Each structure stands twice: as structure tokens, then as C-alpha cells.
Structure prediction request, 319 residues.
Amino acid sequence: MSTTSEDGPASLVSVAGTDTDAAIADLAGMYAGRAWHTGRTDGSYWYRYVGIGDERMSIRRSQMQGSLRGDVAVEGEVVVQWIDSGSAVVDVGRDAVAMQRGIPTLFPVERRFDVEYRDWDQRLVHLDRDLVLDVASERYLVDRAVDFDRSTQPTAESVVRWRAAVGTSVQALRTSGTDSLAWHESQREVAAALLDLYRFRAEAVPPGWGHHRNARIRTAVEYLHAHAHEPLTVSDVARAADLSVRGLQEAFQRTLDRSPMQYLREVRLRRAHEDLAAAHLGEVAVADVAARWGFTHMGRFSGEYLRRFGEYPKQTLRR
Prediction:
């Protein structure tokens, strides 16, 4: 964990150099890179990477006079980056995004992807996955999935809010340190700003969801999220929520406009999508993923999947 000194917060990481082999050794390990290549472009080669913050959130700057390409895997974190100069392409060969200067770009979450950079000055914000889910739970019915729609460019208003939130967090870190309430609250503001940058794929919480009268159905929903991979009956869920089966059914219909088993099917559909998005073609079969989440009729599974995600399961797997 970093501390605050008279000159500001200490660095979580700080590396620099002028050697290509050293650059790969210094940088690839931070992003689980397995096949990286870096080289000279015009002029002398150099790189610099520095980050401040803590395990819940860090703000980083990456610079290089040179080129870099390779694969990246980010686990347990959500990473947003933007460039102030140079060029960068994220998710090369799949859902490639050619970065525009000043526009925050979200790394693919929980899967390996390829990148290409050239002569860049880049800013990054690393957010702990649990922090993002905790803040998202104020707006959405979240389960374990961190699923953002990366296909739409952020609005100008959301970018302004994002930059303001990140700037405020840096100031809080510099003046108050990582143990302060100001830093803690600024982390949550950055996570909230992220939810405005890219649409979070989850159902919005219904009105009054946090009220005491909905405590038992909240328990039921949490139980379904936690046990979606197990064989479940309505009685199992009712027992976990301390409700009768009829009371559970009525609560779901009244609050969420569906039955508990319909809600469970939707959770499992999202889990199947998450697994397919993280896999590579040839590693798994669509039928195996469907069966893993209890879908035995491939025609119905594909139809539900298409309505929910706008593409067939095999298209997700092939991207």
C-alpha cells in the first residue's frame, strides 16, 4: 500500500529505461503478458511507467517512445485507459478499438486480448472488481458478472464526469493519503463515473428495492446469484429467504414481474454469455457451455441468447 510523503503519495510502481528487453521484463508482468514484442520507431527508445494508489484503485501513467504489441490479461480488476498522444489499438483481432485521444477506453474484462501501441502517452485507472460490483449494486441487480457494453463510445458529458472524478481522487490521495475517508469516497465516485461511461449489462433495481419490506426478496435474489450453478427448486429459494413458496412467488411477481425460476434462468443465461465471451474458439463448444448452465435444448437456448445479447452464442465464441 502506498503512503503519503511531503512530496505526495509514494508510488505503487515506478519503472523506466531505454532497453527493449528491460521494457518487456518491467511491463509484461503487470498485465500477465505472455507474447510481447517492443522495438524502436523514430528517434531514441525509452519507456516510463508509474502508478499511485492502493489495491482498490490506482491511477497510472505509461509512456514509450517506441512500439509495443502483445497479449494482456486483467484479472480481478476493471481497467480504463486513454491516450494523450501516440496511437493504440485494444482487442486486436476481435472487437478492436482504435483509441482516440482523450476518450476513455475500457479493457475487456476477465479475458485475454491483444494490444498494439506506438509512441504513446497513456493514462490508466485500475479499479478492484469488488469495488465496481459494490457501487453497481446501488443501481443494478448484480451477480458475479462484470459485464459492460464496450460497443458504444462514451458521451461527452460522461467523459467530463469521469475526468473530474479521477482528478478529485488524485487530489484526495495527495492531500489525505490512502487511509483517509476522502480517498475511500473518491474511489466510489470514480467507480460511479465508470458506470456512466459504459452501460453496465444488468437489470436496474426496482423502485423501493432497498426498503425493509423487500429484505427477504433481496435475500432470495442473492441466493440465486450465489447458487446459480447448482440444481435449485423454488422450495430451496423460499427456504433460504424464510418465505413460503407462495409468498416467494408473489414477491417476485410483484417486485420483479417474473417468477423466481424465470429470474434464475436469466442469471444462468448471463453466466453462459460470460463463459463464451471469455473462451477462445476451439477451446470449448457452445453446447458444453449451454449444458453447464442447465440449457439442454439448443434451439431455445440460441433464441433466448439472441434476444438477450443481440447475437447467437456461436458469434460470441468466434469473436
The mean pLDDT is 92. The longest strand covers residues 57-73.
